Amino acid sequence: MDTLLFTHPACIGHDTGPGHPERPDRLRAVLTALEDESFALLQRREAPEATIEQIALAHPDAFVRRLLAAVPEDGLQPIDADTVLSPGSGAAALRAAGAGCAAVDAVLAGEARNAFCAVRPPGHHAEATRAMGFCLFNSVAIAAMHARLAHGLQRIAVVDFDVHHGNGTQDIFWSEPDLFYASTHQSPLYPGTGSEDETGVAGNILNAPLPPMSGGVEFRRAMERIVLPAVDAFAPELLLISAGFDAHARDPLAHLELHEGDFAWATLELMRLADRHCGGRVVSTLEGGYDLRALALSTAAHVHTLMTG
């Protein structure tokens, strides 16, 4: 068994309201794309709910309980201008975080070479004590902390190619020298973080910002010259991916010019790096991507590469 897919219908139940770009149709588009016959060998598993204790590895317990208590019984409850709670948001956020933890468990147990978590809401903007940017809990950071506590891993790396900088993952990893975070992203752009001089407590943060209208050439150059060598030098025992596909040329929220082939290339390069250092162990989690066709094509290219690379 090479690749596992973790998802859950509860992740569709997170309602962000009319016109919101982070909408349930995003996950529907992803799952429809993964029903193609080329994914017949993709093994599917139901994402469990994360426990409060697991989430509290990355977020203070009081914050976790306060956010879950804020989930409304009906209607929508805005957290900020971009981030919304609905009656289904708590279950969705618990399943999204639980998917990452379960995927780590399965990959480290040798049940699969790698895994992809098709979940929402996304997570990489969620800071330790702040939900923001469409994100409630930081699923990839929780997965990293879970790998460290439950499996005794020391060196864990997250590579984030979402078009927006993962300020939340950077915030949670900042003072953790054994956790490495590397990001390519458009700059300037929301949330305004991710400059090259943001390097963490021990050089464990690496940002490779790209100017607007950068395309595949510039993205691949940044990966080859900056990100991949740094992750290679870090030599992780587990590689996590924040897989956002909003750097695609069709995406309405940013201005990079990537295509699905660029995401497939980056996936393959990260898999080769994982082969060198951690037995190919990779867990990828869906982040952004707001044009439904581009999201479907890019996710399919990413997962197909995980299965065959």
UniProtKB/TrEMBL annotation:
<dbReference type="InterPro" id="IPR023801">
    <property type="entry name" value="His_deacetylse_dom"/>
</dbReference>
<dbReference type="InterPro" id="IPR000286">
    <property type="entry name" value="HDACs"/>
</dbReference>
<protein>
    <submittedName>
        <fullName>Acetoin utilization protein</fullName>
    </submittedName>
</protein>
<dbReference type="InterPro" id="IPR037138">
    <property type="entry name" value="His_deacetylse_dom_sf"/>
</dbReference>
<dbReference type="Pfam" id="PF00850">
    <property type="entry name" value="Hist_deacetyl"/>
</dbReference>
<feature type="domain" description="Histone deacetylase">
    <location>
        <begin position="20"/>
        <end position="306"/>
    </location>
</feature>
<dbReference type="GO" id="GO:0040029">
    <property type="term" value="P:epigenetic regulation of gene expression"/>
</dbReference>
<dbReference type="GO" id="GO:0004407">
    <property type="term" value="F:histone deacetylase activity"/>
</dbReference>
<comment type="similarity">
    <text>Belongs to the histone deacetylase family.</text>
</comment>
<dbReference type="InterPro" id="IPR023696">
    <property type="entry name" value="Ureohydrolase_dom_sf"/>
</dbReference>
